[in-house]
Amino acid sequence: MNVHDSEKMAGILKAGGYAEAANTEDADLIIFNTCSIRQKAEQKFRSELGRIKLLKSKNPLLKIAVAGCIAQQRGRDILKRSPHVDYVFGPQNIHKLSAMLTTNAMVCIEDNPEIQHTDLPAERKENIKAWVSIMYGCNNFCSYCIVPYTRGRERSRPSQNMYKEIHELAEKGFKEVTLLGQNVNSYNSDTNFPGLLRKIDTIKEVERIRFVTSHPRDLSDELILCIKELPKTCEHIHLPLQSGSGRILKLMNRGYTYEDYLEKVRKLKESIPHIAITTDLIAGFPSETDNDHSMTIKALRSIEFDGIFAFKFSPRQGTKAAEMEGSINEEIKSQRLNEILGLQDDITLRKNEALKGTLQEVLVEGASKKDKGKITGRTRTNKIVNFEGDESLIGKLVNVEIRMAMRHSLEGRLTSQS
Ligand code: SF4
Known about the structure:
The chain is of the alpha/beta class.
């Protein structure tokens, strides 16, 4: 979400006559697009912001802006604590960037109830895959999460706006789009999310459609049918579980039980046997006992995700979980996280090994960063595959036979161009 917001800021700046500086020392304007999902991201931002102060003393014309969720949360306080900052604007006020730059110090953090109608030009670095926002904000208020406070209420863009945007992307040669939202399953405008997928699937030049993120509670049978039936919609779903313990899920205000989640996974696997399912997990949520943690471990063993993003619980000021009793000490959090990650490493490897000998459709994305002379791409299930091939294949769909499996990637052999 933040990466795509940065693309929109770059698009606005480009339209306003700005060009990208080769490095921060040469820049007339530096924007920090911040994330406040965990404490660590916030600390990184603070130290970078301190470091950049020096540049301002060398170049008094330099303007510094702070955008993103930390800007939204801290607002004017950023200007007070860091007087070298000129502008502060939240994720709902990106459209004001141009106007803001013509004024002196300014804070823009108000709610934007029209954000779904505020289409902005995006300056994308890649030319094969593109992010496309379909909605903004979130109504869920999971107890640990700051997003509903920083990005506001859920607002869905009208489907014809995405249709037009994706059409234009296709004309420019983009082959894959990832539809973005905090909870795409609750997209609700002139159609619902499955309706939107069906509409976008008709755009001829688009080869692949992906989407993130899906809230398990709102995953419908209709959506499962779309993944199964629609030729361009990829067989991969990111479905954040967060914990295998029903008690913790309740404290997290996730709106589903572990059994509900299992049932959705069962339906997904039954309809689309080769689907890849990935998830997010939080280790050491307040009051999490050894027993709760072992339920998460059990969930990993029984569901066998294709990949996970797991992090230690990080209290976010202003959320309910930050006030909860029973905080877990850092050492235990780390132990639990390591156990989760270690187990998942084995599962991922085993799942990747099961692909050996299979033929996979791969969208070639570029030259391999690790292996000189090889090219790289992703399967429909979002697994990275490296193989020998000519760079003229970049942007094309090819068939690759999987020869070797590692934890984070696969090695293959090009068989034919599809
Ligand atoms: S659904 Fe996602 S974005 Fe919304 S509150 Fe929960 S964790 Fe945060």
